[in-house]
């Protein structure tokens, strides 16, 4: 069944509403309301059912709107966007933008969604996307640089996210090569890039970001790795529209800067936040496994490992999984 934004909007204040009240407001039967409630719950919305009172969200929800996001951005950031879409229900924000190339004269095209049915992470993994609690968004941006010069872009985007989150008061942030943001060692956000264009340029890149803002029972059951969320860390509610505006502004600024300077403007900052710097790790590809000590990243964004034989090897992102040896041993 399709997800009902009008129903979620009615419930978003956190108050109780009976089935009759909701039916009257929505112009449908109590049975139809019940089916819509079940659809929202299946999408990850925590809803209380109390006899004699009705339905209430476990926690009030601030729904995203394009107007509020744009109002929170500086003039320069707003002018850099040709289009900002805020969708309620979509397969994937990145797929949505991949199918919509920038037209001549357009700058960036951003898309946020309350719910993703087929959210994607690296290496073909599914990104768990419960409804109305986190931030799922993508930015399509045109770069004058070619594909070969965009190897460090995911690192620059990681730095931009860390900057925005620190401005929100978040402490304990770290970066994991090539595309994860950690909070106290647990995954907080992920980045996925999809590049199309010429080897020497220009290129268009869809920058996809998933950020855990609020923990839900649905997420606890669905996510199979250590993870964290902003509200649990900060001990308070986070305004999602204001945060979306802040992060989108930072990503636009980072994309512009990267197109001018490449990774040079971000490399030192990325290495300062590297959660695995100086640690022994294992890199796994579909066919090989390499152990070594992390020694930062090079000017192209490749991870540098110091191997046991005394040599250094550079690894470029792709079908690679990075894990600390200490974490691996702990799970044996």
Automatic annotation (TrEMBL):
Entry's Gene Ontology cellular component terms: cytoplasm
TM ranges: none
Alphabetized SUPFAM superfamilies for the sequence: C-terminal domain of transcriptional repressors, Class II aaRS and biotin synthetases, Winged helix' DNA-binding domain
GO molecular function: ATP binding; biotin--[biotin carboxyl-carrier protein] ligase activity; DNA binding
Record domain BPL/LPL catalytic: where: 77-259
Keywords from the UniProt entry: ATP-binding, DNA-binding, Ligase, Nucleotide-binding, Repressor, Transcription, Transcription regulation
PROSITE patterns: BPL_LPL_CATALYTIC
Pfam families with a match to the protein in the record: BPL_C, BPL_LplA_LipB, HTH_11
Any GO BP: regulation of DNA-templated transcription
Keyword Ligase recorded: yes
EC number annotated for this UniProt entry: 6.3.4.9
UniProt name for this protein: Biotin operon repressor / Biotin--protein ligase
Organism: hydrothermal vent metagenome
């Amino acid at each position: 069944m399709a997800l009902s934004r009008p129903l979620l909007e009615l419930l978003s204040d956190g108050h109780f509403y009976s089935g009759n009240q909701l039916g009257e407001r929505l112009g449908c039967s109590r049975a139809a309301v019940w089916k819509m409630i079940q659809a929202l719950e299946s999408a990850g919305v925590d809803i209380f059912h109390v006899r004699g009172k009705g339905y209430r969200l476990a926690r009030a929800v601030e729904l995203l709107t394009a107007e509020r996001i744009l109002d929170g951005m500086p003039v320069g950031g707003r002018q850099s966007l040709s289009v900002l879409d805020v969708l309620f229900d979509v397969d994937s924000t990145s797929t949505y933008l991949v199918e919509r190339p920038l037209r001549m004269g357009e700058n960036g095209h951003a898309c946020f969604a309350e719910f993703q049915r087929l959210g994607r992470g690296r290496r073909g993994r599914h990104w768990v996307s419960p409804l109305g609690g986190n931030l799922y968004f993508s930015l399509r941006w045109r770069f004058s640089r070619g594909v070969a010069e965009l190897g460090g872009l995911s690192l620059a985007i990681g730095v931009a996210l860390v900057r925005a989150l620190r401005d929100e008061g978040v402490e304990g942030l770290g970066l994991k090569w090539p595309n994860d943001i950690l909070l106290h060692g647990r995954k907080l956000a992920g980045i996925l890039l999809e590049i199309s264009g010429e080897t020497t340029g220009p290129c268009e890149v869809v920058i996809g970001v998933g950020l855990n803002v609020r923990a839900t029972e649905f997420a606890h059951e669905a996510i199979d790795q250590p993870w964290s969320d902003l509200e649990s860390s900060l001990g308070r509610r986070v305004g999602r529209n204001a945060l979306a505006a802040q992060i989108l502004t930072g990503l636009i600024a980072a994309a512009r800067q990267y197109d001018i300077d490449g990774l040079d403007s971000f490399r030192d900052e990325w290495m300062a936040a590297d959660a695995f710097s100086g640690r022994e790790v294992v890199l796994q590809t579909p066919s090989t496994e390499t152990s070594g000590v992390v020694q930062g990243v090079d000017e192209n964004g490749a991870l540098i490992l110091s191997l046991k034989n005394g040599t250094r090897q550079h690894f470029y992102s792709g079908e690679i999984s990075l894990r600390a040896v200490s974490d691996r041993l702990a799970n044996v």
